[in-house]
Amino acid sequence: xxxxxxxxxxxxxxxxxxxxxxxxxxxxxxxxxxxxxxxxxxxxxxxxxxxxxxxxxxxxxxxxxxxxxxxxxxxxxxxxxxxxxxxxxxxxxxxxxxxxxxxxxxxxxxxxxxxxxxxxxxxxxxxxxxxxxxxxxxxxxxxxxxxxxxxxxxxxxxxxxxxxxxxxxxxxxxxxxxxxxxxxxxxxxxxxxxxxxxxxxxxxxxxxxxxxxxxxxxxxxxxxxxxxxxxxxxxxxxxxxxxxxxxxxxxxxxxxxxxxxx
Length: 262
Description:
The chain has 3 domains: 12-65, no CATH class; 72-153, Immunoglobulins (Immunoglobulin-like, Sandwich); 159-249, Immunoglobulin-like (Sandwich), CATH 2.60.40.3450. 0% of the residues lie in helices and 42% in strands. It has strands spanning 12-15, 45-47, 49-53, 56-59, 63-65, 72-76, 79-83, 87-89, 91-95, 101-104, 110-113, 121-123, 126-128, 133-141, 144-153, 159-162, 168-169, 174-181, 196-199, 216-221, 227-230, 232-236, 239-242, 246-249. It is rod-shaped, with a radius of gyration of 37 Å.
């Protein structure tokens, strides 16, 4: 082919790389049939570009495009939901500025949970959950940080917990508060059933709680027999819990206050 030194047209560019940065020709740089252009191929793999002038198209040979340097990382899964006590496995992948993968970097990524109080533990990239809630998983690799969301829900009711009960008097009602919890001590807010009440004197009334609300029941009970070190037990299926001991006295002792005048 002969060089057309008097070329005065305009050329356009195309590329197999849809992300390529292609130059524009305004005709001002042509000299003796030659003009320099700069283009940037951004997608890895073998790419080509084409120069078009009128009905003439010239395609380049294949050009191998390699990824650029590390720009960011991504954690997978970006959102996950598990039950307290279950495990979640996370992975990490590195990318350049043009979203080309630099490969899996899981083994070189440090994973943590951002918030305090999650109660779980990491073994490499595997997280064993404990406390229910919405948590932020963070991964750090070569100074780059990515985050993901992990929702940990409560498990089924495993046991019940009583608030402290003070000493009581026979045949006088008093308030108790009981919370339904899973095996990791998370309040099971979805528990809304009643449960059976018993006590060590075998005289407690009522014999069942009312329905729990958001995993908690507060209600009045009465014990009709005196006992030192009494306890109350609540049970639903295989889940149960007992209060700390308290004394139930048969009567209250009132000491008169005598004020003598001069």
